[in-house]
Protein 1
Amino acid sequence: MNDSILYRPWSSLLPVHSAPAIVGQRSLKFVVKSHWAGFHVFWGGPPNTGWWGADTSVFWPQSNSELRFWVRSTVGGMQIQINAYAYERLIGPVGTVSVPAANRWQLCVLPIPASVDSLPLKGFEFSFGPVRPIVYFDDFKITSVRMYAGNGNPGPPTDFNVAMDYIAASQVGYAPQMPKQFTSPVNFSSYEILRASDSVVVFRGGGPIRSVTSHLIGGATVYVGDFSSFTAPGRFYISAGGKRSLPFNINVNVFDEPVRVAQRFFYYQRAFTAITMPYAEGPWVHPSDSMKAPPGIRKGWHDAGDLTVYFPTMAQTIWWLLESWMDFQPFNDSTNIPESGNGIPDVLDEARWGLEWVLSMQDSSGGFWGNTCAEGGNGYYYGTSTPNTINYYLRSVPPRVQNTAKATAVLAYASKVFAPFDSVFAAQCLSAAEAGWSWIMLNPTQTNDTDFGNCNVYSQGTDPSLIQSNKQWAAAALLYATGNAYYDTLFHSLYQPIVWISSYSKSDGFAGKLYLR
């Protein structure tokens, strides 16, 4: 449990600098242009996010934790103020470091103060004060911390003994016949699986099948054990090398509740409706904000981080819900959403909630508007029952090729998925999709989807590759829905190699998968 978190610049897309550098090959460079400028640094993330990580997992400092980093400034005598941050809020000061000499690397070591010790943190804020130097940082590290892979403020696990409990096994659990692995921070020659209720050994295995070293875990090495051959149902924990795991379950229904909880997340994100008991299984209720919606706009989901309903994220979310049905057929019609019990799988009921928002964003031209943009007070705070405080929503970004192509894709796909359940709704989706494609053919130059208001976060601008990938997705969906050879010809004319996984902007991966259906 005495882990170290290492921050190091891996991405050439960030303000990194090859000279000077003291650790590794690049340092992080800041050209300070205003008084009290600063930056944030958070733990985690894949290599292409570098210093600012995407996986901002919670960590707890301890009484012996230290923040260590190298710094170099073009101005001597400056001071750097460092604050600690939790999830979406400032915790308090960590301390101040002085940089007495210009153009020299200096190692800074700050003990984590008692005011921050044992609080769940996300990262740190560095402020430069009233000077305007060029500052270089390298080799950020915080030592002796306890990790938690998740968001929010769950509190340190009370049964997580620092000396013993450190093997990582799936806290969701394992199905009996699935591959089962765990990781240990220390090498081991053998391991044991013990029954959680009485600590009786029920299975023994050998040493690790491999080791993994990664910058994503601070440059540390972990050792991977495999217990796939153990299939007995029950609740167990693993012991190896003087370490142990938290308890986990093995049974055939182990994923039922996590899937149910994940699926119900969408209910809590629903826009323009009241979230009420008994469907809210907790205190997360609030009144409807439908009176603030633009005329004719209905349903949809609030974004993960704010109250706006964005087309790029909506389209991708609907796609994955439809895909989950097509690939796995989760028939559960009892997840306790308002539509439960209507004879239609709840995953499709939830997908329809998003699809009806898409339909409401189509105007008489056949094109689709971009966002339902929240103006004023746009913050979205989880775990509260506070009504949103925005002034109003507006329908922003007039019809553009990008959003119309995405709408065409998900509606055409939905027409096929919903046909066995609601033929009228399926026909409505296909009609809207075909009208959307006609709009694209008539308006090929309407491509700039920039939102000049409050909601520009997912705009693509006029990138021709992204536009082509979205049209390719639409063509594949219309081909799948209609079987019309015209769309097959269009798909091939729009084809481009799939160079990365599809995202909010780029859809060629979705297009390729749908074409193969």
Protein 2
Amino acid sequence: MSIHQEAARRRTFAIISHPDAGKTTLTEKLLMYAGAIHIAGSVKARKASRHATSDWME
């Protein structure tokens, strides 16, 4: 697949809300149900073994 075809099939959207409204939780569930990740992470549990994928920047 060419880079043009790959870019054409992608969609970008934003989830905007006030703090602590559940944006990361919603994002994690969307990623999980779409098959991008296998387990939805957690934001509040500091000692949780699985943190939110969408809260990390590389």
Protein 3
Amino acid sequence: MTAITFSRIDPLNILSFYNAFSMVQIYFIHADILQKTWEYSFKS
């Protein structure tokens, strides 16, 4: 299935891949902020 998806690269595919990637990036940034807030609240 992945081979078929990557063999016909159309703008829609690239866009959806980019959207998924940015969603993952945003999730990791939020997780990092949450972890720092968590650690800060434990120190004080």
Protein 4
Amino acid sequence: HTPLTRIIVAGRVLAVGPLGLVSYTPDRSQVTSAPGLSPRPKVLVMTGVSHRICCCPFPVEFLFCDLASMMSIRDFVQKFKMKKIPLHVLVNNAGVMMVPQRKTRDGFEEHFGLNYLGHFLLTNLLLDTLRESGSPGHSARVVTVSSATHYVAELNMDDLQSSACYSAHAAYAQSKLALVLFTYHLQWLLAAEGSHVTANVVDPGVVHTDLYQHVFWGTRLVMKLFSWLLFKTPDEGAWTSIYAAVTPELEGVGGRYLYNEKETKSLHVTYNQKLQQQLWSKSCDMTGVLDVTL
């Protein structure tokens, strides 16, 4: 398997090679790695805050992008394409969880706008670069991070903004359900056109990160007391994303839902192709992306 050399990661935990890991926090950047497929991969991290990195054995570049702003996403993509470099892996891993009801700069409910629409737009704007970078036997990959909460979600096509009756948990779960539907339809489109790009979706498990800062205080107390027993560490939570990004076992394989580095079934409605198409078309309208399926 040819080493992967160009990776974009949107989010907090970054995968580089089957045994390599990059992670960072808002207050202190920390980079660690172990031997992987490529001795010197190039990693570009999308982030909404400034970071500094030291003691890193491979190049890591931070480039600002606010996934809650379509203007910021388009600006990021423009700057990336000006570099005229390939892109072998895109990891969609940014997000918010159970935040109070509020809107993005573009007027979308924040869970749906940032967790889902932001990644939808980013992926579509980078598809041409991914297509150019993939080749027979060495497909480019899109890895999108969802959550087990999608199993209890409902997708209300008439109220994707959760405006009628807002529930932070329901809004978060819906955004994660939308990501699964998006991934499956994206894979269908990529396979239909015969491009050397695959799309898979992963469930990292219950990971102890600051995403839980908005949950009920009692839940936070339980997390603090029993996190060692109930939760994965951020490093452990990254492994399925790492697996999806680089394992030779998934060469040319897409449309899979992965948990603990194994394929498993997602919620039954995610396989509804009509629902996938409806969400895709509506997402195109919301983001200004050309709907190639029409």
